[in-house]
Amino acid sequence: MESQTGESMVALTESMERMEARLEAAASLFERAAALIEERESERTGELRKIVAAVETSREAELQKKLEAAEQQIAELRAQMAEPPEAPAPSARRTVPASTAQFLAKQGITSLESLEAGALDAALTGLSLEQRIAVKAQLLRAGVV
Known about the structure:
Elements: H1 2-82, H2 98-106, H3 117-123, H4 129-142
């Protein structure tokens, strides 16, 4: 019986040693798999970070260009506002409707070159407000006033 017990102890020990070797092999495989997964995960997140950084950089550059363009436009507008306005060029057209010319001639205004605001107002006193506005508008269009 001792021999049977001794044999079963030996068989049990050998079985446990084989199981231990298999567990060590499985643990080794598990560690390698975990290391590979960890490496892939870090690569994936690293690539994602690189892409995000590239997108942010290009968007930032685009916004910087737009800002510079807007600042340049603002500077140009400010420069235009600082310059004194140019006097409007005198109109080359110096003709007025015949009815207006006849009315002004009746009032004693023959030359449109030397027309003064006071003389014009004095000549238009006999007209209604609407008629005065119409005459002045025609003179403005003709470039006389």
